[in-house]
Amino acid sequence: MLHASGFPRSKRVLIRVTGGRSWSLTTSRSGTFMAGITMPIREGWWSVVSQSGRSRAINRFHVTSHGPGGQVIDVASTRGQRLRITPAGLFPGGTVQLRGAAFGRSHTLTVAGFAVTRTVKASRTGSFSAKIVVPAATAPGPSKVVVSGGGPRFSVTLHVFRSPAAAGGGAVPPVFTTPTLPNALWHMDDSGTVMVDSAGHHDGILHNIETGRPGSIGSAFGFNGSTSYAWVAPAADLSAGAADVTLSIRMRTSKLPPVSTDDWDLIGSGDSFTDGNEYKVEYYPNGTVECGFVGSAGHKEVFSDPAKPLNDGAWHTIQCVKTATDVKTIIDGTVYAKSAQVGTIVVKKGIIIGAHPNSSGTAGSSDWYDGALDEASIQVG
Question: Residue 31 and residue 223: Cα distance in Å, rounded?
Fold first, then answer.
C-alpha cells in the first residue's frame, strides 16, 4: 500500500513501477493520496515512482519468492531523501531499525521516538543508520518516529502491539502481520485551520484551537476550555456498524473538570447530543475517563480507576474499544472491561473533538476540554 503526502493539492499524479504498469489518480485537497501497488512477480529490486509536476518521489523494494517480505516502511521525499524503517509493527521491548539515504553530506540529524531523542551524523554520502529500543512499558497503539535536520522533516507512525506470552509464561518470538490502518488518523501536527487525516480523507476543521503545542511526539493541539473544538464531517466508514471499533487519543492536562460540569468531552460522535447511536470519550471531575458506546441493542459505559486520576500533567494514551461481547477502556495499556452487546452503531452527524456537540452535531456547545490532545484515531474492524 502506497500512502503519500506533500504533493500538489487536487492534482493528477502518475504512479509507475519501473519495468511494469503505470496509472494515474488525483490527490486530495491536502495533497495526499493512497494507492494499492501490485509488484512484478520477478525477483529483484523494483522502483515505484510517483510524480505530479515537479514533485517526484521514488521508493525501492526488493521482491523475493523466498517467503513473505519483512515489515518495511519506505518513505521518500520529493527532494530525494529516503528513510527505511523496519519493522512497521512492534512489541514492547523490540528494536526499530532506521536507515536513511541522501540526507546531506555529514549532516547532523535528530532522531526522536518512544520518549528518546538522539543525534546521528550522516556519512559523506548522506546515509545513516540508527536503532531505537521500544521501552517495555510502552502502551499499545500508534507512536511516531521523527527524523529532522537533513532537509524535509520525516514523521512516520508505527504501531505497537501487546506482546503475546507462551503458555508457560515466557515471551514468544513476535510474528508480525500487516497492521490494519485506521479509518481516520489525526496526528494534530497541523498549523492552520485544517486537521489533516493522514490515513484517509476525513480532514477536520479547527475552531479556536492553539496549534504547535509540545506533543507526545511532534506537536499537539491546545484546547482552551471554552471555545475550542475540532469537527469532522460524517462519513460512512467512520460508523462501526456491527464491527469492532477502537477510538484512540492522547491527552495531557493538570486540570479537573469542575464539579458543576458533568465532564469534559475528548472525542465522540455528533449524535451524542441525543440518545442515538454514538461513541463518546469523556473526562470526569474525579480524574477518570469514561468510554461509552450506544447501539441498536443498548449502551454500555466503562470508567478508568479513580485511584489513578489523569490530571498529573503527563501524556496518557486512551483507547475505547467495542467488540461483539464487551466494551473496554484502556489507559496506558491498563484494561478496564465490561461484558456488553450494544449492537449496531451508525454515526450520522460526524465526529467532535474537545467539546460536546450541539443539536445539529456540527459544533461544540458545552463540556469544553481544557488541555492538550494528540494522535486521535478511529479504527473499524
Answer: 27
Q: pTM of whole model > 0.70?
A: no
User: Rounded to an integer, what distance in angstroms lies between the CA atom of residue 272 and that of residue 293?
Assistant: 10
Helix (H) or strand (E) holding 293: strand 289-295
End-to-end CA distance of the chain: 18
Ordered structural domains, the chain, with CATH: 1-67 (2.60.40), 70-179 (2.60.40.1930), 184-380 (2.60.120.200)
What's the confidence (pLDDT) of residue 140? 81
**CA 57 to CA 13: how far, in whole Å?**
11
**Taking residues 265-287, what's their average pLDDT?**
86
Alpha-carbon distances, residue 54 vs 14, 93, 210, 328 (angstroms): 12, 42, 33, 48
Let me know if 269 is exposed, middle or buried by CB neighbors in 10 A (0-12, 13-18, 19+): buried
Question: Phi then psi for 270, rounded to 5 degrees?
Answer: -60, -20
Please spell the DSSP secondary structure of 200-257, one letter per residue. SS--EEEESPEEEEE-SSSEEEEEESSS-EEEE---GGG--BTS-EEEEEEEE-S---
pLDDT score at 92:
85
Q: Are 202 and 214 in contact (CB under 8 A)?
A: no
Q: Region 318-337: what's the mean pLDDT?
A: 92
Residues 230, 223: contact at Cβ < 8 Å?
Answer: no
Q: What is the pLDDT of residues 281-314, one digit of tens each?
A: 999 999 999 999 999 988 899 999 999 999 999 9
Overall residue count recorded for the chain in this entry: 381
Q: What are 269's strand-pairing partners?
A: 351
Nearest to 231 by CA among 364, 358, 375: 364
Q: Can you read off the three cell numbers belonging to residue 52?
A: 505530479
Is the confidence at residue 71, as pLDDT, over 80?
no
Q: What is the pLDDT of residue 42?
A: 63
Q: How far is CA 33 from CA 5, 119, 163, 218, in A?
A: 7, 31, 32, 22
DSSP conformational letter for 273: G
The band of 19, judged by pLDDT with boundaries at 50, 70 and 90, is: low
Tell me the chain's radius of gyration from C-alpha atoms.
21
